Amino acid sequence: MSKTRAMVTGGAGFLGSHLCDALLHEGYAVIAVDNLLTGRESNLQHLRNDPRFEFRKLDVSDPFDCGKVDYVFHFACPASPVDYTLHGLETMRVGSEGTRHTLEVARKYGAKYLIASTSECYGDPLEHPQKETYWGHVNPIGPRSVYDEAKRFGEALTMAYHRYHNLDTRIVRIFNTYGPRMQLNDGRVIPNFMKQALRGEDLTVYGDGSQTRSFCYVSDEIEGFLRLIRSSEHLPVNIGNPIEHTILECAQCVLAITGSKSKIRSQPLPPDDPRQRCPDISKAKALLGWEPKIDLETGLRSSLEYFRQALLEPAATGN
Ligand code: UDP
C-alpha cells in the first residue's frame, strides 16, 4: 500500500525543514520543494538517505506537478524583513501565483491544504493581544507591504478555494519563531543578537528597544501545525508564544545565556516596524489543546550550539 504523502513547499527553509522532520517522524512520505532562494539544502542534508524523503528544486511560482499528494503545506516565501525586502517581487509572486499553484495541486489530488500565514496580517496592531478576528492595521504600500499583502492575498485565495471549490484548507498565522537552522544572516533579531554576542560585537537594538515581540521555539510551533492539520478548522488560527518581551529584554537574555561581554548599541528603527506583537492563543488552546511549553531562555539555550557551529562555517565569514 502506498504511504500517505505530504508536500512541503519551502521545505529547505527554517520552518519547512523542521516540518519535514516532524512529518517523517509521524510516518508520512515527504516531498520537499524549494527554489533555494532563501532556503538551504544543508537543512535537509540529514534526510538524504531516508527512502521516504525526496527533494525537488523548483519554483512554485511557476506551474508544477510532482504527482499525487495527500497533504500540501505551503511554506515557500522569503520570511525575514531583510530577505523579503531584497526579494520583494519574488515574495509577492510566491504569495499570489505560488499560492494558486499549490492550491491547484491540492485540488487536483483532493489533498488537505495548509498555508503558512503570519502575524504580519495584523500589521502594526491597534488591538492587543491579537485575536484571529482582528482585521489588522497594515500599510498597503510601505516597505513591508510586499510581504504583508502577499500573505493577506494568500489567505484570501485559500478561503476562496475553500468556499468555491470546497477544498479542505487550514490557515496558520505564525508569530516570531526561532531555533536551530535559522540563517545567521537573515537579519532577524535572534540570529543577529546571537551572532553579535558570540563574536563579542555590539548588539544592535533598533530604536529604544521598547517594541515587543513574542518568541516561540520551533518545536512548539511545529507541534501547533500538526495539531491544526488534524483539526477541521478552516478559519485562521494563531500559533505563537503569548509571552511578550521587549527587544531590549531579548538582547539582555542573549547576553546572559552566551555569557558575552558585548554592549548594547542603539540603531535607527526601520520604517513601519510594529510597536508590539503578541498572539491571543485562546482559540488554539480550546480547539487544538495546544500551547507552547518552552520559554525564551530555555529556547535560546537549546539554540546556542547551533549558532556557535553556524558561525564556524565559511558562509558566516565577513557577515
Ligand atoms: N531588531 C533589532 N535589532 C536587530 C534586528 C531586529 O532591534 O538586529 C528588532 C526589529 O526592529 C523588530 C524586532 O527586533 O522590532 C524583530 O525583528 P525581526 O526582524 O526579527 O522580525 P519582525 O518581527 O520585525 O518581522
Mean pLDDT: 96
What small molecules does the structure contain?
Answer: uridine-5'-diphosphate
User: How many domains, in number, for the residues?
Assistant: 2
Major β-sheet, in short? 7 strands, parallel
Number of helices: 9
Largest sheet, order of strands side by side? 3-2-1-4-5-6-11
Principal-axis shape equals globular
Strand content is 15-25%
Number of strands: 13
Question: Helix coverage percent of residues?
Answer: 25-40%
What tags apply to this protein structure?
globular; Rossmann fold; single chain; 319 residues; binds uridine-5'-diphosphate; UDP-galactose 4-epimerase, domain 1; alpha/beta; two-stranded parallel sheet; 7-stranded parallel β-sheet
Describe, in plain words, how this protein is organized in 3D.
With 319 residues, this protein is an alpha/beta fold. It has two domains: 5-177 and 218-239, Rossmann fold (3-Layer(aba) Sandwich), CATH 3.40.50.720; 178-213 and 243-278 and 293-314, UDP-galactose 4-epimerase, domain 1. Helix content is 38%, strand content 17%. The chain contains nine helices and 13 strands. The strands form four sheets. It has a seven-stranded parallel sheet with strand order 3-2-1-4-5-6-11, with helices on both faces. Helix 5 runs parallel beside helix 7 and helix 7 packs across helix 9. The longest helix has 22 residues, at 88-109. The chain binds uridine-5'-diphosphate.
